[in-house]
Amino acid sequence: MATASAARDWARSALRGIGDSLYTPFRGVDGDDIDWDAYRALVRYCVADLGHPMLWCTSGVGEFWSLTLAERQRLLEVAIEEGRAANPNLVVQACTAATSAKDCLVLTQHAQQAGADIAYIQTPMMETHGGDGVLRFFRYISERTDIALGMFNSPSSGYVLSPAETARIYAEIPAVCATKEGAFRPASSRLLHELAPDLVIWECDKTVYRAGWLRAGIVCPAQLGTTGYLFETPRRRLLTEYWDLIVADKLVEAMDFGRESGLDQFDVDMGSWLTCYPGRPDYFTHWGGGFKYAAALLGLPVGDYPHSRPPQAELPAAARTQIATAYRRLGLIEA
């Protein structure tokens, strides 16, 4: 675990490689229970079978808004237990976002005690008074904890911090060392780097990595939270091979691999089902049922209740058809 005082030096060396954002497998009537065996299997698959060096726990893909505090705490504990058994050097990232600062504090203190390396706080999803409110939120947590903190700037919050607002939080809160920029606005990430050049930035718009931003030091060599396990299998390490080329600064080779392997086309074929609900097309979401359906196609356990908990809708048949077709075209499942 990185303490608050050591967070920034730690982040620049430790945050590297593919970080898997874990879904939460549900079971029972209405998905009221968690399938712990399935969750343990998912952790082992990501860390042992795929060899990914980081986990991202209880965040948007994991449907944190639908989980109790006790469930979120146990999910983190199990990920640490299973993950570190497979790889003692595993970097565990805990999302401790909550609408209430007190709930966020409970989760962040637990992450510190449980042995997570860093806690990420997504911009609060309700009643956020701009950057001033988010700064106050971070200060409240940092004054009561001693763990590295990261920002998660996602449009699913309903409010996206500006580069100046993010840089101010970094300047005033020493424990803050990294940010996942999830709004797909690379120009803002570039400006943020100019304002806070030592902040570790992961830009979700993958095109910037092909444009040499890693070489330029604008972005970091880590995927701070993504579903890498949905883009490859142990027999076909498509994402790992692509990412290794990026990190090795073999950008032309990476672009060729993206095209020739089918990864580029896969993004097109999948459509927006994982991040967009058609009934609310202007809102960015993490559609848990979509992630779990894709995982099930690859043979991963998702529990006997494969849907999201409320308030998310069930994944429609059209989505399942399109996602399955995309996987068949990529060749990760049989035609």
Automatic annotation (TrEMBL):
Task: Return the SMART domains for the record.
Answer: DHDPS
What are the GO MF terms of this UniProt record? 4-hydroxy-tetrahydrodipicolinate synthase activity
Record has Lyase as a keyword: yes
This entry's Enzyme Commission designation comes to: 4.3.3.7
- A family per Pfam: DHDPS
Question: InterPro entries per the record?
Answer: Aldolase_TIM, DapA-like
Domain of life of the organism encoding this protein: Bacteria
Question: Which keywords does this Swiss-Prot/TrEMBL entry list?
Answer: Lyase
Task: Give the Gene3D superfamilies listed for this entry.
Answer: Aldolase class I
**Broad class of enzyme this protein falls into:** lyase
Q: Which family does it belong to?
A: Belongs to the DapA family.
Task: Tell me what this protein is called.
Answer: 4-hydroxy-tetrahydrodipicolinate synthase
- Native species: Mycobacterium talmoniae
Q: Gene symbol?
A: dapA_1
